[in-house]
Design goal:
By secondary structure, the chain is α+β, with helices and mostly antiparallel strands. The protein is built from three helices and 18 strands. The strands form four sheets. The protein has a six-stranded mixed sheet with strand order 4-5-7-8-9-10, with no helix packed on it. The longest helix is centred in the N-terminal third of the chain and has 38 residues.
Length: 290
């Protein structure tokens, strides 16, 4: 047997050993098309799930409460933070990490001599975009404050100060230090002067008095030793960090209108450690913890 004959014989043996199969080629094509459709559908479903995860924070933002604005008697724009709680703001907010940040407006300018009121404590006024809103690692949250609206008051020493509204509608005061991952605060702020401390940023003692009368032009604080300080409130809120908390808790306060008329008098209350003490970052009573 020649080499060619041996080769043909070997090939024929291989061919004869292949089992005979029969089938409908169209059915095979249909099965292939069905598999492709299933594979494509799976890819579409996977893509849709990825999109839902990506835009979930946007749905969260869209579902938040819409800010309500009203006109004040002096032409001011007021932002409604909660029922009966309206604060004057600049009308154009900026968006930051899912929250609308408004710049709070100063109270009326005093028309009387303030030199006898003591030492002035001023808010360092900044643009709304200057406030650093801390981000959240939870993609379903707008930000670490869980806030849809903030009203930036300004800076005092190392603290960036803002009123923030939680998703629950509760109004808090936020202490930021200009970084993304730190800050503290207190909930809720009320129409009574409240005293506490903060470890981040470090504030040995602070006093906040909000929901002041809309006509309040000046807030004066007098410590037990007779030392006094005054401030023009922003967004119906005043903030002092001029003494230790125990001293601030014994302070007397008065709010005056632009003509120097007394609108309201009050005394501070020390609330740190009280059962109502809450941190707007949700970290418990020790503000600096994270």
């Amino acid at each position: 047997m020649t080499v060619d004959e041996a080769t043909r014989t070997y090939v024929q043996t291989i061919v004869d050993s292949v089992p005979t199969r029969s089938g409908d080629l169209n059915a095979v094509v249909r099965r292939g098309g069905h598999r492709r459709r299933l594979r494509n559908a799976s890819m579409v479903v996977g893509g849709l799930l990825a999109i839902v995860v990506a835009v979930a924070p946007l749905f969260t933002l869209a579902s938040g409460p819409d800010p309500m604005h009203i006109a004040g008697s002096r032409g001011d724009t007021y932002l409604v933070l909660s029922d009966g709680y309206e604060v004057p703001v600049e009308p154009e907010p900026v968006e930051s990490r899912g929250a609308l940040v408004y710049l709070g407006s100063l109270g009326p300018e005093p028309a009387f001599d303030t030199s006898a009121l003591g030492t002035e404590v001023m808010f360092e006024r900044q643009e709304a975009s200057h406030l650093v809103v801390p981000s959240s690692s939870n993609p379903l949250e707008r930000n670490a404050l869980r806030a849809s609206v903030l009203v930036y008051l300004g800076d005092i020493e190392t603290a960036q100060l803002a009123l923030n509204v939680l998703d629950t509608g509760e109004v808090c005061i936020f202490f930021g230090n200009g970084t993304d991952v730190t800050g503290g605060g207190y909930c809720p702020v009320t129409d009574r002067p409240q005293v506490g401390t903060s470890s981040d940023p470090v504030v040995d003692g602070w006093l906040v008095w909000s929901q002041l009368p809309k006509d309040a032009a000046v807030v004066q604080i007098t410590l037990p030793d007779g030392t006094s300080y005054w401030q023009r409130p922003v967004a119906r809120t005043s903030f002092f960090q001029v003494a230790d908390p125990d001293t601030l808790a014994a302070a007397r306060l008065v709010a005056l209108d632009a003509d120097g008329k007394v609108l309201i008098r009050d005394e501070a209350t020390f609330l740190e450690g009280h059962e109502n003490w809450k941190d707007p970052l949700g970290r418990g009573k020790e503000h600096g913890d994270r």
